[in-house]
Design a protein that fits this description.
Length: 284
């Protein structure tokens, strides 16, 4: 079922007509033997008033006639349609869904907590009214299902999978784009559109948060040490090359090994070193 527009008339003219009929009915009622005509005027005026509907900006009224969908009124203001039409108002404004924290497993099976904020709106009033039982509850349940599915497809971060192109902590916005796409596919049957969907909360579950924090710290320390060692080796190579190039001192293999050992200790040590002056030679 697709939305179709229902043409409505301005309600002010019908208010004037109903008031005129009521006044006419009162005048006729004052005359003798005219009760039937007066009652008819009052009845017609009342029926005209029943067809009035006030529609606010960004609001629509879905109309049905004895169970059949006849159209949707979107013109705001005081409008008039057939008094026999049953009208149901739907807001077209953007709405926020602040999802609750969900405990799910990521791609590697680690328990995590995840939540999302979804900005949605009613795009098709007919589908929202007749395709699902309660479109607001439908949005809540399908949003939760989409978040659970997305969380199970990707790892929390690259520590879990170094070859992962996309992770839940991805900062480029790809995860949010995928979430929007997934929600759009799920909610289109309910006539709901998505303005924006973003991950609002992401963390390891409390039972493994401490262990994962230690793992992250250890990985950071290893990465830092690797960079320090790579830099120290480069500096040692440069020092040996300069000494050999300028002929400042000639070192045999044993003296080179001692020099490399001392330089690596100085460059890779966490604390500043204390120099020791050797008054003799390397061999005594």
């Amino acid at each position: 079922m697709k939305e179709k527009e229902l043409t409505s008339a301005s309600g002010y003219l019908f208010i004037a007509g109903a008031l005129a009929l009521w006044v006419l009915g009162g005048i006729v009622a004052a005359a003798a033997n005219a009760g039937l005509l007066a009652g008819l005027c009052f009845l017609i005026g009342t029926i005209l008033m029943l067809g009035l509907t006030v529609i606010n900006p960004n609001e629509a009224a879905v109309a049905t006639f004895f169970g059949e969908y006849v159209g949707t009124m979107k013109q705001h203001g005081l409008r008039w349609v057939n008094p026999l039409f049953r009208r149901h108002k739907i807001s077209l404004r953007a709405r926020n869904l602040n999802g609750q924290k969900l405990k799910v497993n990521d791609k590697m099976g680690n328990p995590i907590e995840i939540a999302a904020v979804v900005v949605w709106f009613v795009n098709d009033t007919a589908q929202a009214s007749f395709e699902v039982d309660n479109y607001q509850k439908f949005v809540e349940i399908q949003s939760e299902a989409a978040i659970r599915k997305l969380a199970g497809m990707y790892c929390y971060d690259t520590i879990e999978d170094e070859n992962a192109q996309i992770t839940l902590q991805d900062g480029s916005g790809k995860i949010n784009e995928m979430l929007e796409h997934e929600l759009t596919e799920r909610l289109v049957r309910a006539g709901v559109g998505i303005h924006e969907a973003r991950i609002s909360h992401l963390a390891y579950s409390p039972e493994i948060a401490g262990a994962m924090l230690q793992r992250q710290q250890a990985s950071a320390v290893v990465a830092a040490r690797k960079q320090i060692v790579d830099g120290a080796v480069g500096m040692v190579e440069m020092a040996l090359a300069k000494l050999s190039e300028k002929g400042i001192v000639h070192l045999d293999e044993e003296r080179k090994a001692a020099m490399v050992s001392n330089l690596l200790v100085v460059l890779c040590g966490e604390k500043s070193v204390s120099p020791v002056i050797n008054a003799g030679t390397l061999y005594n």
